[in-house]
Amino acid sequence: MTFRSGAADAPAFNQNLGAYLFLAPALLILFLSLLLPAAATIGMSFTDISFLRPTNFVGLDNYLRLLSDGRFQQAVFNTSYYTLGVTLPTMVLGLLAAVALNRRFPFRVAFRTIFYLPVLTSLIAAAVVWVYIYEPYSGPMNGLLVSLGLPPQPWLQSPNLAMTALIIMAVWRDFGTAMIIYLAGLQDIPEEIYEAARLDGAGKFAILRRITVPMLSSVTFYLMIILIVQSFQVFGAIYVMTGGGPLGSTETIVFQMYQTAFGYTEFGYAAAMSTVLFFVILLFSIVGTKIMRKGEA
Amino acid sequence: MAELELSGVSKVYGAFNALRDVSLQIADGEFAVFVGPSGCGKSTLLRLIAGLDPVSGGRIAIGGNDMTARQAGQRPVAMVFQNYALYPHMSVFENIAFPLQMERRTKDDIKREVSRAAEIVQLSTRLQDRPAKLSGGQRQRVAIARAIVRKPGIFLMDEPLSNLDAALRMEMRAELTQLHRRLGSTMVYVTHDQLEAMTMADRIVVLNGGRVEQVGAPMELYHNPANLFVAGFIGSPPMNFAAARVDAVEGHAARLTVEGLGSFAVSYDGKEVSAGDAVTIGIRPEAMLPGAGEAGHLSFRMTPETVERLGLHTIVHAPVGAKTFTALFNGDPRMARGSALDVSVPLAQLHLFDRNGAGRSIRDIQ
Amino acid sequence: MSTSIKHRGLNRRELLRGVAGSALALGLTGVAGRAFAQDQQLVFWSQFAGSKRAAGEALEAAFKAAHPERNLVSTLYAEPPQLNEKILTSINGNTAPDLFVQHWDYNLTYAAGDRMLDLGEALDVDMTALDPSLLAYGHINGAQYSVPMYGTSRGIGFNRALVTQAGLDPDAPPTTWAELREWAVALTRRAESGLLEVAGFSMFHNDLEAWETFTIFLQGAGGSLLSDDLSTPTFAGPEGVKALTFLYDLLYADKVTDLGFGLGPGGLASPFNTGRAAMIIAGNYSTNNALRAGIEFDVAPIPMEGGGFTSIVDPFCYAVPRDARNTEGAVAFIEFALSPEQQVAFAVESKNVPVLKSAQQDPAVQADPYLSKFVHTASFAPAKAPAIPAFSRLVTIIARAVQEAMFNRTSVENALTSAAAEVQTILDRG
Predict the structure, then answer these.
(1) What is the value of ipTM here, to two decimals?
(2) Would you identify the family this protein belongs to, as annotated (chain C) (predicted)?
(3) Best to test chain A binding among C82, C86, C88 (most A CBs inside 10 Å)
């Protein structure tokens, strides 16, 4: 049986040879630039490599150390909090904006542009502006709170608020992307489906909940994975805005990885962090997929 | 169960008048078919009745209640769309249950109603499937079941059979007619296919250019089309037309001259025309008989360009004057392409249309 | 047929031989060319950027003029971490420069991997002529792996206008902790709502400053970060507790500042430079921004608890990779940079404290009103330095502990004790 199926496959492989040849350059680049470094990182995580001193194989030591490393655990918590905090509101706001802007009304293109602009700004420039916005004494954010009769807040200065402040900025930056992707997804829903739902007595909210959202599930899934992967790797904005502080409340895994590798020259330990990050992202993606599938079924 | 009353309904899109001053009454339980070429406004009219689009003017009443200002979901209507508009992410059960859920009915209630509707459309075994797994005909039935559970006063159907193949279309036509009989509710059915209109309708509304051309029972429209448009639209193959001149009107007869047919007299009350007028004559293909006619027949010769033998009928295309006439003969008579043929038409079945106005019919048949 | 095959085979062999030959020849030429070029070049990676840029360029120009045969080729890196990434990878790729200048703690990391040349042996320089407190930062494992060019130093920076407004004498700055406290309280201004308008003493604005402020007060209480042999943390002892408690009380009892006040990127928008802080721990690098912001800037030595002064210095040091191709040239450059003339010129241009003791007292340096004050405060820095390769880690751990206590996450004692335990683990790991 096996032999026969093998023989039957042979011509198919020959036929595919051309395809493999065409793919070869891309695969080679992918291998050299992605898989090889990834494998090397996993390999390095079992050593104490520093690129300065002689390297020893240390087995699972780095991973055992991570288990008792309170700072790393805080970073994992911070990163997960940030990821959830960014992903969910970004998708919800992106969806609402997309649904709102999918209707025909004057200045709709202007609104789309305004909502999408943050995506186009330079991350560092945006971060600098937001540092000013959050400035506790003269910043517009507290100006707004005070004018609403609320007490001003030390946004980036309090360990309890700093991460939330970073999340707000990230949502501001990212929801334009979510909106554009959702707008594209909305174009694929036939108008008749909405009309059928209206005739079936569904109100605006019921249509959103029962028709629009489920029909965008594949778009939502795509967005969610993109946002999770992106949020888990956050670095630039935090580096500029809080430097991981105060009290390590905004220190993320990537931030710590960088510090461990280049600040402390513990590349082996940093490689272990990076491997853990890889599996955490994988886990989140799988859980996300499961939730989506469940929602679909 | 409800009657539908449209008075002076119009719809304007920008500078385009999609519907002008449409007034209609459709009785409770009636099967009404809106028919017309594409762009005639029939689908627009249906959407106005459904409440999907607001009217630009006029009034829509269902069951004696003014519905003009009501939202789509608040009108006692259900609609079946051309492309079914099923919810692709829901099972058949959920699709049919959706309108009931929107009414916040109890779970047991919903279950009972859905299985009853599914039974009517013979889909009881497919309730757990997604629409993507169903055939076109089955999807159509889901859409119908979804309409049935709403127990609407009026069913609105927008070209529901146009996406089906010919055989299935015939089958579904019969099923829809049966369904109408079984439910006894008012149906408004939109189609561009005059055959569907003829076979299914209690009453046909012919629309053209946003206006109602004629309203009537299928045979009424067939025998006495109100104008050239209806005459040409109803009946298949379509009616043959030729330009004629009125030579004289004497008592109850008019003498006409038609190019290719010569000069002949038809009985005519004479009120509408006088000598020298230009008119149009209309001859249905099935009114033509093979062989030279007796008295009371218009007889002429023609030479077929094509002969299409269908077994039950034979269709012949032949030049007559400047026009090409189509004739439909019963059975399989002996005739061939290129050899001249005697044909006769009972003068009683000759249609006359005024050519100065809008092509109004000016001669009642029977 | 067969001859033609043979013939073709021969040709191919010949061709291969030819290719191999010419490749070899090219390779040899390349090696020779590179070797030739190496003799000619002195590759220098510099971190003389920002406020030190002009001084660095002048130094290089002077060296080029004095030693045209050395063929100096330099590359400038904007930030120490950037240079660090570059050096770490180059050391492994055998593309390291002959010489670089970097923030001292990075050099210790490279030295700990035995990758650096012992400059104590290589340099023909009188080490006793250099400031010992700066030199200490380049000393590790019994050798001088890295030699400072200059250092920064810390003092109490204050706003003379605010001091005068508060009825204090700007020419009689505090000399004890008690006086410092009085000043801080007197200088603090709050609105009726309690909103802080001017902080009497703004203690720190980031992790590094949290570490620095604590260390200064630790020294002020008579303590030190590490034991003399650098093997044990000593900052959690009674002096450390006293220092952190003093800072805690300034915050909570005296309310001379708010938690997180001015935390952020600093620069011209920092509380001090916007007139919203009357006193800070200032470095010589603070001068330019303060003056540009129009602050009536002044500097005083940092008082110890019961009198006397203390400070911290923070040097930038030269280092030469052990495997450098042109150590001779590198040594020549360092010796040149340590000459009195270059030391004075660099200090005056960059407003930093020169490592050469004679240069510190040079009239040209002393003529600069602010630089002379920072040279003075530098003299109070301890002669011992926490010169350990894991220094940056130590900073992070202590900064965290200080803030945990200040944010009331834990007690002063607990914060310091657990930080000390953490530091001990790192020191033991080596």
Answers:
(1) 0.82
(2) Belongs to the bacterial solute-binding protein 1 family.
(3) C88
